[in-house]
Amino acid sequence: MSRSAEPRVIVVGAGIGGLVSALLLASRGVAVTLVEAQPEPGGKMRRVAVDGAWIDAGPTVFTMRWVFDEILAMAGTTLDQTLQLSPLDILARHAWRGQPDTLDLHADPARSAEAIAAFSSPAEARRFSAFCRQAREVYNALEGPYIRGERPSLLGLGRSLGPRGLATLAGLGPFASLWRSLATHFHDPRLQQLFGRYATYCGASPWQAPATLMLVAQVELAGVWGVKGGMHAVAQAFAALGEGRGVTSRYGCPVQRIVVENGRATGVELADGERLQADAVVFNGDAQALALGLLGEPVQRAVPARKPAQRSLSAVTWAIHARTGGFPLVRHNVFFDDDYRSEFDDIFRRRRLPQQGTVYVCAQDRSDAGPAPAGPERLLCLVNAPADGDQRRFDPEETDPCEHRSLALLRHCGLELAPRAHQVVRTTPHDFNRLFPGSAGALYGMATHGWMSSFRRPGSASAIPGLFLAGGSVHPGPGVPMAALSGWRAAEATMAALASTRRWHPAATSGGTSTPSAMTAATR
Questions:
Q1: CATH of 8-46+59-84+229-307+448-521 given 3.50.50.60, 3.40.50.2300, 2.40.50.140, 2.40.420.20
Q2: I need a surface site. Which of 230, 254, 292, 371 has the fewest CB within 10 A?
């Protein structure tokens, strides 16, 4: 192929990171082939059929709308043209074993403060307001240099933060854990438990996660939306947009290895032996799959190997289509047991399913208000679990008691499910490891434990020229918007590499930009 010809990029994996990379590259005149082992797009935004009903079986929360606004603007469209979103007033409803009162957190922090005052005390409501102010300051300090930025170093982040940002982080206490910080904000242990759950959004224990993860509070206060069609509709929409801009999508095509020639990634070989040539490859899978040699020995050095102790949380999930009663479910519901610390000791120290695990229930047919569905409703129930899916199968002898304990907790909180005539689709860490090779079932890549953990995630550029990385296991981290940002970063890095090695100039797109540097400018 002549140096002036259209460059070719292969994107491996149709999770949101890969879909964003494919869309942005195609929007700039790159010939993109997207290959995915599963029969449809989504990655962790997967869905399962239960009794003929599709249920989201992965992420269930849509936040950080600005990420998608900016990505879609570069692709020449808008979020309102792409998805039907509805803002949620109630962010989540929380219940505790054996306690009659529930606590709703609202999009309006003033309403949340009123709810906390009634649930706990006016003093705790004032502490909540102070907590929100600090969370907002932490978020504002880190959004530019960390969330939006390239993979940071400790020194580089310190320079980018400036005196005010450094003072904000210093105010959290040197090397403070999230749990330790929460103890200074809240006296009510139930509120410590509630806000400690933010660590699990990054696959971490509140006792080991850095206090900076309080910024999740600000992420939620900035808006949580429901998506018509569920979170899987996000993947479908991005896949359709990419194909509309020329992406060739190939589903049901597992990749056997990434081809490296003369020290550079030059394509992929599929499981059936077919070889696809390219000028660059974007890998949107768990980065550990590379280090383990699952994509071939030549790319093992692309990223550092991750120690088993660094794995994030996994989960056991149950997708259920059943009638409910007794508890006023909203879209997002959290049920707490008595001994919160034991949950994380069980998972991270004892490497077993928790004996007193928190149960998250996403009632996908519910809104903030209104009557319950007349018939069965779609539920996703989740309990945190150790990421040991590469070491054991998590057979029913282990998962059945966990399910029974979880159902008992729901009953203690007032929620009744119809007798077990309903179908249940269970997913374990072993299943997640099979779905996402190299992950061991870890759903968030590396656990965000300790201050330095954020600097250990790989960035968009790997150690192999021509091989770029996207997904929740790389910077800036897990979660749908963060993985989307990683796809943006990977596209940016790929464009820069193509422009530096070829006599080729990106094409302009309506509503987009025409040069790689403009992509960088959009993040400043």
A1: 3.50.50.60
A2: 371
